[in-house]
Amino acid sequence: MDEYTSAALELVKIKASQVSMEPEAITAMVKSIAQGLREADGAALRPEASMPPVMEPAKAIKESSVTCLECGKSFKVLTKKHLAVHGLTPEEYRAKYGYKKGAPLIAKALQRARRKKMKDMRLWERRKKAE
Question: Which residues contact 37 (CB under 8 A, 6 or more apart)?
Fold first, then answer.
């Protein structure tokens, strides 16, 4: 095994640990990355810069989870703390992946549940009574 193949194998191991992949996809990815490294003739490639997003941004916000497009992990809410691990703020993350400026980075079901809870609490009526 040459140095390019072993480097490609390490990159694919990282990717496969974050996202479930079929064996054929793993093999194809190792071959394509090794070939790319050979063509670049050992030029240093950062894994973050060389890999495309895990999925399409439109499909990342699902009913019960949100997938981070940087690392591929799923969450209920994509927090500032997690995005800071990738060196991004929520605003930078939205801009990088084409989300609207105020788009919530939260699972759709959780967003609905929170909205319903706030409506049920009727805090605006309590505020008026206190005055």
Answer: 4, 7, 8, 45
Judging by beta carbons within 10 Å of its beta carbon (0-12, 13-18, 19+), is residue 12 exposed, middle or buried? buried
At 54-109, the pLDDT tens digits run: 788 889 999 999 999 998 899 999 999 999 999 999 999 999 999 999 999 999 99
Provide, for the chain, the percentages of residues in helix, strand and coil under a 3-state DSSP scheme, each rounded to the nearest 5: 60, 5, 35
Enter the pTM of the model. 0.55
Instruction: List C-alpha distances in Å: 115 to 104, 108, 111.
Output: 12, 11, 6
Which residues are paired to 74 by β-bridges? 67
